[in-house]
Each structure stands twice: as C-alpha cells, then as structure tokens.
C-alpha cells in the first residue's frame, strides 16, 4: 500500500471501501455498462470527501474496470467495449448497492483492523498452518504495529491465533481432530447453556428467529450467506448469551471456530444452501415455542452431532480446492 498523508487512517480505509464496493458491483455485473462515474456525485453518495473517491477511481482504472473517455469522469467498461456514455444521477440502484448497505465503516480503527485480521485468519486456517508477521500486517493495513498487536492479542483470547514467548504469531491448521474435539465440547455445553439462557429470551424474539428460518427455507438456493450467518448467530450466540457461567461461555465461543468452515466453503463454491441445517434449527425453535426446553436441548444436541459430520465433510472438500492467495503478512508453513 502506498504511503499516505498525516490523516492516513480514515482516507485509506475509505478509499479501499469505495474501491471494493464499486469493484464488487462491476465484476458482479450489477452496475450499468457505460455509466459515467464522477468524483463529486460519488463523494456525496458515499458521504465522504473527493480525495478517497479519486484514489478509488484511479485504482479501478489501473485494474481496467473503468476507463477514461472524451468527457469528465470515468466510464464503466470492464469488457473493453465502446459503450455509449450514460450520464445520469448516480444512485445506489445504478451502482448495484443494496439500499440498507453501509457504504463507509465508521467504527474505530482498532475494531476495523481486528475484524480484517479475524476474517483473514478464519479464511486461511482451514487450508493449513500460517505465520502472521506483525510488521508486514502493519504495512499492508497502513496502521501502527501496536494496533496490529492489540488485534492479534484479542484473536488469541478467542483461540483463533497463538503465540509462544518471543516467537511468531501462528494461526491454524483447523484439523479434523480439532473439529471433533470442539464439537464434543459443544455437545456437552451448549444444550445446558440453552437451558439457562432461554429463560431470558422474550417469546417475541424466539418467534422472530423462527420466522427467519422459515424465510430461509422458502428462499431455497437463493438464500444469502448473511441470512445463514444470522441464523447461526440466533441459535449459537443470542439464545445462550444468558448463561451465568462465564468460563463456560468462553469455552463455547472458542469451540465455535469450526462454524467458520461453512463461510469459507461458501466463498469457494458460492453456495449457501443447507437444507438439513435449516430443518434442524427449525425443530429447535419449534420445541422452544411449542414444546419443552428439554426437547429443544435434545434437538440442539442432535443438530451439533450432525453439524460435526457436515463440517468434517466440508474440510475434505476444501482440501482439494485451490488455496486462495494469502495476504503478504500470512506465510504458509510446511
């Protein structure tokens, strides 16, 4: 990443956000070919100054996704065809951006870096064993080394990375044996955590969670990955958040790392559909609403047993897929 001005933290984050948002929309075919992109209207749409917009457009131009023409601005033309310039007011719809999507991440810098590193670790730990270089991460993310170190320390607390005294940060590998061990602990602890936590859940919240499952089932293969992850959050985080034993809660959170295998497989295969998981979730919530807590706990235990087998199968699939290009701060270990 190139050097920036004294205010590098916010502009750097913003131009990357703008570039990635437009890039994904263009490559996904969601934008209108020939649409003219101009700094001013884009800056207004993204709620920022023109500087990060200009940086983002220059990067997209270097990548060949937009091009200059005889006029002001850039033309969306990823195929290199001679599209007629379309000058119209820029809207989210024309740029393929969801109405509810937040275009700029205003969270504190430390939170953004933590999430970035967590996503990178989760994505690559299923492919093997990696060393994380603090200095390289700081340079690539354009932040201080202290910010990176603090994020890695939080990831260590979650069990995603490890560090021995005076040695490197390490991530992965997520092995079949580790998956089995984690699910064994979850099968022992999560049903009891559900038993404790569900008493604090309003019935209206449980009904909303069941409704989300039904909608996901109705969507079939069109269900979005974000919707699947919300369902996982509902059952495995929200419903057990009321557990009073903080050590139990910490162990459960650490053992839930294998849940990320589904996300990685989705990125590789672009498929979110999991009919069996949805039915298992539905049985649990129907038991909570119309049956007994004990029957729901039994359904949860059965769900985790089946999820373990699905996760092991997904690990096998991932083992034969091409490994994605890792960022510079991740070094694959033999």
UniProtKB/TrEMBL annotation:
Transmembrane segments: none annotated. PROSITE patterns: HTH_GNTR. This is GntR family transcriptional regulator. Residues 12-79, 107-178 form the HTH gntR-type domain. Keywords: DNA-binding, Transcription, Transcription regulation. SUPFAM superfamilies: GntR ligand-binding domain-like, Winged helix' DNA-binding domain. GO terms for molecular function: DNA binding. It comes from Pseudomonas hunanensis. InterPro entries: GntR_C, TF_FadR/GntR_C, Tscrpt_reg_HTH_GntR, WH-like_DNA-bd_sf, WH_DNA-bd_sf.
């Amino acid at each position: 990443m190139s050097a920036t001005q004294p205010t590098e933290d916010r502009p750097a984050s913003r131009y990357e956000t703008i570039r990635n948002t437009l890039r994904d929309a263009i490559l996904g075919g969601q934008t209108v070919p020939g649409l003219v992109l101009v700094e001013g209207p884009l800056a207004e749409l993204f709620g920022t100054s023109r500087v990060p917009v200009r940086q983002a457009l220059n990067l997209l131009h270097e990548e060949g996704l937009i091009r200059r023409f005889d006029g002001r601005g850039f033309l969306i033309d990823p195929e290199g065809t001679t599209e007629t310039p379309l000058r119209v007011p820029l809207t989210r719809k024309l740029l393929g951006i969801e109405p509810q999507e937040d275009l700029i991440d205003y969270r504190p810098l430390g939170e953004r870096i933590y999430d970035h590193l967590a996503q990178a670790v989760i994505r690559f730990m299923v492919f093997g064993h990696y060393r994380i270089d603090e200095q390289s991460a700081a340079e690539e993310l354009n932040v201080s080394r202290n910010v990176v170190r603090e994020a890695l320390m939080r990831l260590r607390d979650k069990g995603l990375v490890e560090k021995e005294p005076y040695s490197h940060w390490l991530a992965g590998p997520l092995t079949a044996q580790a998956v089995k061990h984690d699910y064994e602990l979850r099968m022992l602890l999560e049903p009891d955590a559900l038993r404790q936590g569900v008493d604090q859940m309003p019935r209206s919240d449980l009904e909303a969670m069941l409704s989300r499952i039904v909608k996901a089932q109705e969507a079939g293969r069109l269900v979005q990955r974000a919707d699947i992850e919300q369902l996982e959050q509902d059952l495995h985080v929200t419903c057990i958040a009321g557990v009073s034993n903080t050590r139990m809660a910490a162990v459960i959170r650490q053992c839930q790392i294998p849940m990320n295998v589904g996300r990685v497989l989705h990125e590789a295969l672009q498929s979110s559909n999991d009919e069996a998981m949805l039915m298992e979730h539905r049985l649990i919530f129907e038991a909570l609403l119309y049956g007994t807590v004990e029957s729901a706990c039994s359904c949860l235990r059965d769900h985790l047993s089946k999820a373990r087998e699905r996760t092991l199968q997904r690990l096998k699939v991932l083992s034969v897929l091409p490994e994605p290009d890792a960022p510079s701060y991740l070094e694959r270990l033999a």
